[in-house]
Structure formats: structure tokens, C-alpha cells
């Protein structure tokens, strides 16, 4: 029986899982996800996290072993990674900001794409510091603007009066600013013209001020600092332990058009695939996955 391990049981993972179970191929499928949704009865579910992945026969054409945080490894012929975009680990500076916020009762958030953060308790008219991370920033600003009764009309933003003052901090990553996308670029400009968003140049540092119990940017003191985690950092800084481990060893530097994992030399692993929001690959073709397993594997 062929052994397939699927890491991540989100929407893309479960879609491929349904196709695999319906394929009629003799498969033993293990799913690793700490919070899986409803899954077919035919699969074995492990409510934990994958932390390492090694070739057990000394080369990529043989069996593999998936190490789990629970301590029970899984044997596999093919490994499919569908964790989504797990984000990056906070830097020491970001950890310090989070600790400062906890100590002084401030708001410090590092939301990822798709995360919902509750900012309903941010009063109108107060200063909010928001790191500009390109189009993702538009999603974060919407609850503070459109969600408070503001609207766009003929290319201009019409404030409701319920918005805070949103200070846009430079990202430090020019490619984010240059790839805003036309929709967000236009809305960003309209918010600035309306005085709701205030852009700040590079070189203005945000510093914690214990005496004022606030994050300070020049003369501005704020109780809210939002620094989006775009998950675009290096894979070796990933918050996902499996991706981070593979990247640190040089076994994961990217992926091919089919989702096959590429090592630091650009070589594709024949039995490891990643897909979904992590890579932009919708899913590896079913024949690619089934073709990656050996002709005969002992049950």
C-alpha cells in the first residue's frame, strides 16, 4: 500500500484529499494538522505539528520519515505540504514590542493575510500606527474606515468622523510599496487626501516610551501598533517548524511549477510537493502525486 502524508488540512488540502481517496489507488493516507476539520473516515488523523522530514534510505527516491511534535514519526512515500502561509517568526525587536505592549496594556498585532483582528475598541480620532505592507494594509484599514461608515465616491474617500488617524509607516521592503495593486494604490491616495491616513517617510523610528505608556513616532504617541506579517520573509525564518528546518538544511529553497520542493541547488525532490497559499500552486495534478509513489510498497 502506498503511503501518503498530507501536512495541513485546510481547504486546498482537503480538496486534494478527497481526490486521492476517490482515485481508487491503494493508499494509506495520514493527515497532520493540529486543528483539522471534518475529514474522510479512510484517513488517519494526527492532531499535532510536523517538525522534520528526512529521506530514510539516503536519497530522494526512497522512503521518507515525517517527525511529529507528538514524538511519533510517520513513514511516507510521498509528502504533501499544504500548511498555507504560516508567517514568520518575530524578530527580537518585535518580541520586545509585544512584551512592552503586554506590560503597558497596549495593542500590538502582527496579523497575517486572512487574519481577522478586532479593532472595535480603537476610539475615533486617536492615533494608530500601521506598518505599510502593500495591498494587505488595505484589508486591515477597511474595518477602521469603511467599517465605520466611511465610503468612496468618485475616487475620493468621504470620512464618517468615526475613523482614527492612521499613520502609515514605511515597510522597509520597497517591493511591497511598489506592488500595491491599482485598487489599493488609489484608495490609499484617497485616504491620504482625506486626512484619514498620514504617510511617514523612512528614517522615523517607532520607539516604546514607558513614561507615556505608548509607542512613539516623532510627536505622535499611540496605544496601537500594527505590523502585518506578510509571510514573505526567508523560509528559514518561517513560523512553521517543518518549513524552517528544511530551509535551514538547504532542502527547501522554493518550488517548481508543479509544486515539487526545490533544494538550494534548484533540484526538485521527486516525492515532496507543496501547494496552496504557500506556493501559489493550486494543487499538484493527481497523476503527478500518484506517479511519485513506487510501483510496489509493502503494507
How are the SSEs placed, and which strands pair?
Layout: E1 2-7, H1 11-21, E2 27-32, E3 44-46, E4 50-55, E5 64-68, E6 74-76, E7 78-81, H2 92-104, E8 107-109, E9 127-131, H3 135-141, E10 151-153, E11 156-158, E12 165-169, H4 174-178, H5 182-193, E13 197-199, E14 207-209, E15 214-217, E16 220-222, E17 224-226, H6 241-248, E18 254-255, E19 260-262, E20 268-274, H7 286-292
Parallel strand pairs: 1-2, 1-7, 2-3, 7-20, 8-17, 9-12, 9-17, 12-13
Antiparallel strand pairs: 4-5, 5-6, 10-11, 14-15, 15-16, 18-19, 19-20
What's the end-to-end separation, in Å? Answer: 5 Å
Mean pLDDT: 84
* Strand order within the widest beta sheet: 3-2-1-7-20-19-18
The name of the CATH topology of the largest domain is FAD/NAD(P)-binding domain
Short structural summary:
With 299 residues, the chain is α/β, with parallel strands linked by helices.
How is this structure best described in words?
By secondary structure, this protein is an alpha/beta fold. Helix content is 21%, strand content 27%. It is built from 7 helices and 20 strands. Strands 3-2-1-7-20-19-18 form a 7-stranded mixed beta sheet, with helices on one face. A hairpin with an 8-residue loop joins strand 4 and strand 5. The chain is elongated.
Amino acid at each position: 500500500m502506498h503511503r501518503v502524508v498530507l501536512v495541513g488540512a485546510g481547504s486546498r488540502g482537503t480538496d486534494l484529499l478527497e481526490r486521492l481517496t476517490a482515485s481508487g489507488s491503494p493508499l494509506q493516507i495520514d493527515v497532520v494538522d493540529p486543528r483539522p476539520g471534518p475529514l474522510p473516515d479512510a484517513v488517519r488523523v494526527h492532531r499535532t505539528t510536523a517538525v522534520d522530514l528526512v529521506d530514510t534510505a539516503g536519497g530522494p527516491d526512497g522512503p521518507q520519515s515525517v517527525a511529529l511534535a507528538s514524538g511519533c514519526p510517520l513513514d511516507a512515500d510521498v509528502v504533501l505540504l499544504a500548511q498555507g502561509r504560516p508567517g514568520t517568526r518575530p524578530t527580537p525587536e518585535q518580541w520586545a514590542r509585544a512584551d512592552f505592549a503586554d506590560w503597558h496594556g497596549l495593542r500590538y498585532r502582527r496579523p497575517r493575510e486572512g487574519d481577522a483582528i478586532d479593532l472595535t475598541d480603537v476610539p475615533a480620532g486617536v492615533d494608530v500606527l500601521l506598518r505599510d505592507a502593500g495591498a494587505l494594509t488595505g484589508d486591515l484599514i477597511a474595518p477602521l474606515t469603511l467599517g465605520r461608515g466611511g465610503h468612496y465616491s468618485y475616487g475620493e474617500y468621504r470620512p464618517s468622523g468615526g475613523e482614527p488617524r492612521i499613520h502609515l509607516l514605511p515597510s522597509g521592503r520597497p517591493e511591497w510599496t511598489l506592488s500595491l495593486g491599482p485598487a489599493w494604490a488609489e484608495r490609499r491616495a484617497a485616504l491620504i487626501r482625506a486626512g484619514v491616513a498620514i504617510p511617514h517617510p523612512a528614517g522615523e523610528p517607532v520607539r516604546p516610551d514607558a513614561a507615556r505608556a505608548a509607542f512613539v513616532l516623532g510627536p505622535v504617541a499611540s496605544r496601537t501598533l500594527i505590523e502585518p506579517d506578510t509571510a514573505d520573509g526567508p523560509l528559514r525564518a518561517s513560523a512553521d517548524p517543518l518549513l524552517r528546518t528544511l530551509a535551514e538544511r538547504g532542502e527547501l529553497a522554493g518550488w517548481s511549477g508543479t509544486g515539487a520542493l526545490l533544494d538550494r541547488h534548484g533540484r526538485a525532490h521527486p516525492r515532496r510537493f507543496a501547494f496552496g497559499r504557500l506556493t501559489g500552486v493550486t494543487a499538484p495534478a493527481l497523476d503527478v502525486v500518484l506517479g511519485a509513489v513506487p510501483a510496489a510498497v509493502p503494507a
